[in-house]
Every structure is written in C-alpha cells, then in structure tokens.
Amino acid sequence: MINIPVLRWGEPYESLETDEVIHHRTGEVLAKVGQANPGLLARDMRKAARAREVLREIPIKDLVEMMKKAGDLYLNATLPLGDGQQSPDDFARQQSASTGLPEHMCKFNMEKNHFVLNNMDQILDALTRGLDISILERGFGVEDRGVPVSYQAQSPVLGMVLPSNSPGVHTLWMPVIPMQIGLILKPGPQEPWTPYRMFAAFTEAGVPKECMGIYPGGPDMGAETVSRCNRVMIFGSTQTVKNYAGNEEVQVHGPGYSKILLGDDVVDQWEDYIDLMADSVYKNSGRGCINCSGVWASRHTEEIAEALAEKVGNYDVKDPTDPEAGLAAFTVPNQAEAVWGMIEEGCEESGTTHVTAKYGDRLVQMERCDYIRPTILHCDSPDLKMSNTEYMFPFTSVVNCPQEKMIEKIGGTLVASAITNDEAWAAQLTDATNIDRLNIGPLPTIALNWLQPHEGSIVDFLFRARAYQTPDERLQRLCNAS
Amino acid sequence: MKTWVTMVPPLHRRDFMAELEQKTTEAKAQLDAHAVDIVKWHFSPETGCSFWLDWAKEAGWDPVKDIKSFDDIIAKFPHFQDEWLRDLQPEVWVPQEFEGQPFNIFETGGTTGMPKQRIGWNDYKVDYSEFSDTLDDEAFPRNHYWLMVGPTGPRRLRLAIEHLANVRGCSCYFVDLDPRWVKRLIGEKQFDQAKAYMEHVVDQATTIMKHRKVSALFTTPKLLESIAERCEEEGGSLYESGVRGVFCGGTTMDPQYTRFLCEELLENKIGFVPTYGNTLMGLAKHKPLTSEDKYSITYYAPQPRAVLRVVNPDVTDEPVDYEQWGRVELTTLTKEFFMPRFLERDEAIRRAPIDIYPWDGVAEVRPFGALTKKIVEGVY
Fold it and tell me: Bridge partners of B217?
C-alpha cells in the first residue's frame, strides 16, 4: 500500500484526509491518496504565474526533448510514487486493479502515451500548423511567408478535471508542458496513477516540479479547479457539455456517440466491413468515447446486427490479468445494474431488438464489481430511444435510417467513419458541424491520427491569435536575436 | 510567535485517570440532580409551562415522581419533535415563573416555510458568560472591538455574541448573512448568485476591518476563507489586519480543513476557537487542540444545562461506543426550556470525557448522512 500526497507546485503535502484506492476484485487497498481541500488550490493559484515563468526559462525545443525522455522513463523506468516506488508492471497492475481495465489494455495505453511524448515535436508542429515554435515562445514573430503573427497565452496553467474510467484521456494534456503552460491536475478517484507517474517522469527528465500541481479530492475540488483556472478541461455528460456551452474558459469532453455510417453505394457489401465494425465496438473494452456506439445504414441492418452479435456476443468476462481479457469491470457499485436496467427499458420500445440475447446473459455481477458483456441492439428507426445512446462497455445499436436523413439524425458525433465513395455525400459530411472527427472511407472509429486535433485544437484553446504591430526594425531585431 | 496547537504537559497516567474518573462521577451526580430539578420545574403546575403540563396529562406517568436521574429522562421521554416548535404558538413554552415577562423569540433553520422557534430570557447570557472564561486574553483582548460576520436576524447568535463581547468589555460590529437565502440559491443551482451574495458579505466585512480596529472575528469557515483571501489579495493578511482571535462555526470542519484554517489562513499566529452551537442548545466548548488531536475537533456541551449524546441512528436509545460515528442527540435542561432527546441533523464521533469537561464529547460534527447524500451547507 502506497501513500500518495497532494502535490502543491511539485511539493508533497500530507493531507489529514485520505481516500483509499481499492482493487476491484480483491478489495485490497492499493493506495491511500491525500485529499486536498479546495482552499489549498485557491491559495496556490496565486502563484500560478510562476509555473509558466519557470517553463519559459527553458526553450520549447529543450522541453520537447524532456518530453521524449519522460516518455521513455514513463514506459520503462521504476519511478518514485508517494512513499514508494513503481515499476512499469506495477503501474499497469495498479491501474488495472482500480479502474477495472484489463492489464494488457493498461500496457497498451502506456504505449500510446509513450508514442505521444516521443513524437511531441511532430505533434506540436501539427497542432500549431507548422508555426515556428520560437513565435510561441516569444509571443510574436514573423512567419516564413513574411506575415507578423502573435499568439498570447490565455492562462499560465491548464486545469484538468480528470475521469476515473478512461486512462486514454491523458494524451490530451501532454502537449501542454512543452508549450510552456503549467498544469493543475485533479485526478479521478480511481485513477491517480497516470498523473503521478507522469509527474515523476517529467521531473526526472528535467521539467521543473514547480510547474505542476496535483490536487486529488471530491467533486468540490473539481469545481474549484474549474473556477480557479482560466483554462480548464473537464469530462462529463451531455448535460455537462450543455452547462459550459459558450464558455471559452472551459473545454468539455462529453460522450462520443461515435458512429459508423454505411453509404448507400457500399451497404450491399456490408460483410466486407464487419471486422472493422466489430473492432470499433469492442477494442479497448468499448469504453472510450471513440468506440463505435452506432452503425447506421439504409438497408441490411438486421443482417449487420446479427453478424456483429455473432462476432462479439460470445465474448466473456476474463480475469484482468488474462492477455485475452477484452472487457473492463464496472467498479462503481450498482452502476452496471443501473446501465443494464436502462438498456432493458429501452428494448421495451417497439422496433428495438436485443440481438445478443441469444448469446447468454449480459449482466455479470461479482462480489465487488460487475461486467456487461458486449451488447448489440437493432433499431428499425432513428427516432427510437436506443438509436443514439452510449455506454462504457462494448455496446452498439444498428440503426435503419435513409442516407439522406443520416446527418441530421445522428446528432452530435465525436467520430463518424463514413464508408462511402459518394463524393457528394462526403462533401455534405465534411460540412456537417455536428461531426467532430470525420473519417471518409473504411477506417475504424478508434483509429486516431495523433497529428490531428481532438475536439478542437489545444493550441487554439490555450493561445489566442491577436494583432501585434511594431516597427519592422524592432521586429527583425528581436526575432533575429533569438 | 504563539502556536495554537500546543503540547499538553505529561501527567502521571494513573493519577490522571483516577482524577478524571472522580470528576466524571461528580459531573454525573451534578447532572442527575439538575435533571431532577428541571423536570420538577417544568412539570409542576406552579412553575411549569402549559405544553409540558398538558403533555404529562396524556403521558400515563408522572415525570415529577418518576424522573430520578438523567438516565431516566433518556429511558422515559420520547424524542422531542421539532414540529412542536414550528406548529405551536410561543406562549405554550412560557414557564409560570416567567409569566408576563416579554421574551426573545429566536429562530433556527427554516430555509422554506415556518421556522422552528425557541423563546428565552437569560439563557444565552448564562451560556456565553461562561464561555468567556475559556477565552485567552491574548487572542481575544478585553476592552477592544469584535466583528461578527454571519447569521444575525432572528437568531440567538447575534445577541449572544454581542453579550459575549460586552462581558469582555468589548463592542461588536455586525455584518449579516442570511443562510436561508444562500441555501435556497444553492438548492436552485444559482451558484453565481450565491457567489455574488458571498462577495457582498465579504465586501462589507473587509470594509469594516479596513476602517475600524477589530481584534476578534466571529464567522463561518467559508466566510473566513473568503475574508482571508480578500485580505491577501490586497497584499495583507488576517493577522496584519489586526485580527488576533477567530471564532468559527456553523458548518463542517474536518481535521484537514481545520489544519488548513490554522496553518494557512491563521498562520498559527491567530487564536482559533471552533464553536458548535445552535438556538436550541446554546454553545458547546471545544477541547483545546493539541498535537495529539491531529486537528480533530471535539465539542463538549454546556452541561448540565445541555447534554449531547451520540446515538445509534437506527436504535436511538443506544449510545454508540467511543470513537464511533452516530447521530447527535441533544437534551436541553434549563428553567427557561426543557427539550428532551432532540435528534439533531448532525452526526459525530463520540469522544470520552476530559479533565476540563468530564462528560462525553462530540467530534468532527458534520451533517447527518453526509457520506451518503448531498447536503447543502453553502457559505453558512
């Protein structure tokens, strides 16, 4: 059992209040995590400017190199964690034990984080659209095409209110430090592992510890993070997304409702894409916002649903240490039962069919955790309640919908993989503002190109392009000096 | 610099325990005698109030004859119903002895609808005069000025604090906070309005602090945080503003939060007196914090005038064991007011008697069910 302290600008603070992180199968206490009271952050935020100052003392190119080194340390090294040490295997085991994600998926997530850190130069280049990085450092400069530009940081730190159930989200904040912006992390109660291991890797790689704070705590701590940071990223429900709509200081990552859309021109060859669909539904335990939760087509939908059910319906619960384990546990008491109750209720609506029913019970209840096995529904209309839902396990509704109505009916969609050669429809999809990440062609929803922005560019979120005018002589002198 | 978390000098344990046992026995005897007197007072036609006299007629037993100790009160009386304080006119609580004397009407709670009301004459002065004896003159200098930032209005607290200040030769400034409005705003998710109201209160408080000499501050934890934050934003601190002592109460203060207040806001330089009280009880005193307490605050009722027990929430006749959580039950025993076995909307840890308060204490008080449901405490 490890004791993990609050980190106040890198300094450990032993809180008198702790929260236990529990193994979802055995009940073992994996760690006691110090809980911050909101007032600590309120006070510490008065020194937030210092976080950016210490980072600005280091050139971005050096910070990028530190990220690469940190990525290697994160993936391969034994690093300090609270009053103990943590090897890479410990990390995967602990993360799996508290989040319910199978161990091999935790290791895959480590690879993913490592990839992002190791390719930080390319990622920054892509996210800034090839901007000379010294312009970001200096705040202004002249582009290659001779145009003066200025980018102003909108906050000395980015606040992150992180979830417990999806370790994949951590890639979102990794480019922040090399952009010379500090970090305030409020970890999810069951996933303190990544923020603390990243902090250890970053500092070991040379990043100044004063640029990061980690404040575990309850919902009031999350609210304080939102209210104190000028830029904050949070994760939540559709309602949370609505609550912060139009608030430029808060970027909300809500449910994905990601979908595969089969065009009328290819739908008769649906069997060619069934593996792609199954992967999109099932891989990484179906928990991510980029996992497919709807397959939409104008015909053959019953056959597609049956074929998908045959592909994934037999997958069973396995021990999280089993390399073949594909399902993640629900570790919050009663959550799986409630989710399954909602699905059963939805299936009572005429036109909705539970297609995986023939492959056995879906809800598997254990002493300390529960599972729901992959579930495929068929909806004969896009207007049915279950046609546009998302749950944190492999779940998909196969929806019958005319192609011409699809863009309107799919609603907000994080990833749409539209399999079509119909360029007229592709053009409409390109213009559809309810789709965030658009894949045209046979691409699984889970295939992410790290050089592309995710739910808006983090550079645009943290920096504002603005006018900056000064005599050419001064501009040239300052730009050439650095 | 004076540290307010101090070490208690070591005592010979055996002597200490024997002495404590003796004091506990004496306190129990005093409570028993007081309980018998108070019951006799409230249930005798020549001194009692109409509510209890009428109640006794229906009870089927005679409190004057049958109550021979405090334990008898626990065994024989049902829990006091808070509806009685809402639904009945105040005069039913007037003991014969006080007949014809105008009384104060104090209110508690009442976010919506009719609030609970308790009448009184001098009880609050007794409680707070006694409380004054526990205060350190260095933190709460005599003949100076206080500021109370919190619920005034129909609450007993406003008069009580002014009385406490006066007893010490001080005068008190007041900034009102209406907790009913805050709870309503929070209940309706009007967080911006709640925040704006809090800012309004803090503006008034810091204006007084800037323009007047204030050495003692009585406020709620959240307001204390905001007032300290405002002082620091303006380049100062509570200490630099002249504050030397702080009374704090009204909402939950768990050990970490208490530590935060002492270390970060009060800088271990300002005297800290946590308080637990309400209109129905009066004011409980806290055990002076030592390093062994790890900032866990224990309160002791102003016994024998009020008794706090920590009971099993499911079987409320039974106290929980020491160091266990349970629901707080209050019995008030004064000539002005008799209230047996009222179940507070609080839960606490039962703590053992201590030398200066040789009866049970209640620690780490928080709203009842705080771990299982969302409680609106707000800024108050």
Answer: B147, B246
